[in-house]
Fold this protein.
Amino acid sequence: MPRVFYEEQEQEQDEFNVSMLSDEELTQLMEKYKEKLQRYTVFLNEEFERTERKILTIHLEQVKRFNRWFYLNKNK
């Protein structure tokens, strides 16, 4: 793909010109992006929760290891 063509496509996407759309098209587009935002929000929340659980699991393992080490060394 020629570089000029790629740059033109990129520029068109960045501008997101909605001035030529009708009121109905604007409403539909708004709904489309609200739904998209909602899906991404749900996805990000789920990913956040999974990541939080992983961090908690790692932390709990660290605490268990520390406790084992502490009690083993305490009795020496």
Q: What stands out?
A: The radius of gyration is 26 Å.
